[in-house]
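Here is an idea for our session: we take a single protein and study its fold together. To get us started, please write out a protein record for me. Start from the sequence, derive the backbone structure tokens from it, and show both lines together. Go ahead whenever you are ready, and we will take it from there:
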Amino acid sequence: MAAELDFTPPEIPEPTLMENILHYGLFFGAIFQLICVLAIILPIPKSHKTDTEGFESKSSEVVKKTKAAAASANKKPKKETKKKR
């Protein structure tokens, strides 16, 4: 009876090229997803230098023109009232 039992491990074929590509592609895809999720959870704080440079480059004339254009776009024409008979 003891001679009949074969305890050698079964032969496992080596992975093919496509199986290797799939294995490592899934691995790198999972790492990419983790990086994306961490980027959403832990946002990078903005540096103070970029904010001040943006304000210094704009002149007051450009700011006034954009405010005037926005104000004129927000105005709605007045509704005409019905005439009494």
Remarks:
- Residues 24 and 30 are 10 Å apart (CA to CA).
- The mean pLDDT is 75.
- The two ends are 116 Å apart (CA to CA).
- Residues 17-41 form the longest helix (25 residues).
